[in-house]
Design brief:
- With about 325 residues, this protein is α+β, with helices and mostly antiparallel strands.
- It folds into two domains: about 170 residues, Ribosomal Protein S5, domain 2; about 130 residues, Alpha-Beta Plaits.
- Helices cover about 35% and strands about 25% of the residues.
- The protein contains ten helices and eleven strands.
- Strands 1, 2, 3, 4, 5, 6 and 11 form a seven-stranded mixed sheet that branches.
- Bound molecules: adenosine-5'-diphosphate (ADP) and the ligand N[C@@H](CCOP(=O)(O)O)C(=O)O.
- Ligand LJ64HWYM binds next to helix 4 and helix 5.
- This is Homoserine kinase.
- Pathway: Amino-acid biosynthesis; L-threonine biosynthesis; L-threonine from L-aspartate: step 4/5.
């Protein structure tokens, strides 16, 4: 017997972490909330202005994903009342679509009496998103290393180093993941493939063993970032200079346009790094908003329905870390 209503909070994610294209991801302390309950007719409410333009009829992603969960479980889907609020900006490289997919899957799974375990949810979510890095991070929290062969995802979750935090610079324009994937070549030189295998392996080992000193070199990439850089004015300069301004490493977040700088907790150079990010992007004509975030360690969390953010006015998001 399932629950009669479910409110779930799901973290954003940053995919790739540089070289780990479609394989590495980290959950971030920026969230989406999905509430789902059976109803006499289907109603979808999107709260706040962050989800403007998203349909609220049965073509909505959340509704369709809930339907797939019921289908996978071999159950009839009831009409649903769905409410969602999100802090995760759309199409900026912070996994908004993955958080919506994971939120809808977890909520529908709870309503249906948990026919799928988390592993089953990962397989379904990866099939829907097409790559496991964002959905894996949103579903498990922390750092994830994943592989996908088109039909099966294998994933290991790692605890992020305690000292690791992040600054994201979010440009004020959208870049659909699909468009940023079309910028990629269909073939790569062998030397570039070898370069990425070395950096990805080193990055996973550095993160697993807390070798923060290696992160900057391990986050280099030749597989996707050089091809996506022309889509984001100032990106190449940010990636080249961030380590000189106090970052442990820097990468394009997911398919962009957001840029991720990994920083050490309590670093005295955060303000210097933020000024560098804003000025470098600004000089290239890219206005961006900065957030200080932590890794999210939990993935989806079921909350009491009174904790829905649409029940209370939202303040402006400033990020989690101390200035
Ligand atoms: N809550 C939601 N409901 C419906 N569709 C959503 C929701 N969140 C995201 N999406 C869809 O996902 C798209 C963004 O996904 P994508 O291009 O992969 O970028 P990202 O995942 O980096 O934000 C949006 O333009 C929208 O079509
Ligand atoms: N590995 C994918 C990640 C896309 O992430 P998103 O947050 O931009 O949806 C890619 O690099 O295309």
């Amino acid at each position: 017997m399932g629950m009669t209503s479910v409110l779930v909070r799901v973290p954003a994610s940053t995919a790739n972490l540089g070289p780990g294209f479609d394989s590495l991801g980290m959950a971030l302390s920026l969230y989406a909330w999905v509430d789902m309950r059976p109803s006499s007719s289907t109603v979808i409410r999107l709260h706040g202005d962050g989800l403007d333009g998203i349909p609220t009829d049965k073509s909505n992603l959340l509704y369709k994903v809930a339907g797939l969960l019921y289908e996978e479980a071999g159950l009839d889907m009831p009409e649903l009342e769905i409410n969602m609020y999100s802090e995760i900006p759309l199409a900026r490289g912070l996994g908004s679509s993955a958080s919506a997919i994971v939120g809808a899957l977890v909520a529908a799974n709870e309503l249906a009496g948990c026919p799928l375990d988390r592993e089953g949810l990962l397989q379904l979510a990866t099939r829907l998103e097409g790559h496991p890095d964002n959905v894996g991070a949103s579903l498990f929290g922390g750092l994830i290393v994943a592989a996908w062969d088109g039909s099966r995802a294998d994933l290991i979750r790692l605890e992020p180093p305690e000292q690791l935090q992040a600054i994201v610079a979010i440009p004020r324009f959208q870049l659909e993941t699909e468009k940023a994937r079309h910028a990629l070549p269909t073939e790569l030189p062998m030397a570039d493939a070898v370069f990425n295998i070395g950096r990805t392996s080193l990055l996973v080992a550095a993160l697993a063993s807390g070798r923060l000193d290696l992160i900057s070199r391990a986050m280099q990439d030749r597989l996707h970032q050089p091809y996506r850089a022309p889509l984001i004015p100032g990106m190449a300069e940010v990636l080249a200079g961030a380590a000189d301004h106090g970052a442990l490493g820097a990468a394009l977040s997911g398919a962009g346009p957001t840029l991720l700088a990994v920083v050490e907790k309590d670093s005295p150079r955060l303000a210097e790094l933020e000024a560098f990010l804003t000025e470098t992007l600004g000089a290239a004509g890219t206005d961006a908003d900065l957030l200080r975030l932590k890794p999210d360690l939990y993935g989806p969390v079921i909350l009491d329905e009174n904790e829905a953010p649409w029940l209370a006015p939202q303040g402006n998001r400033k990020g989690d870390l101390q200035a």
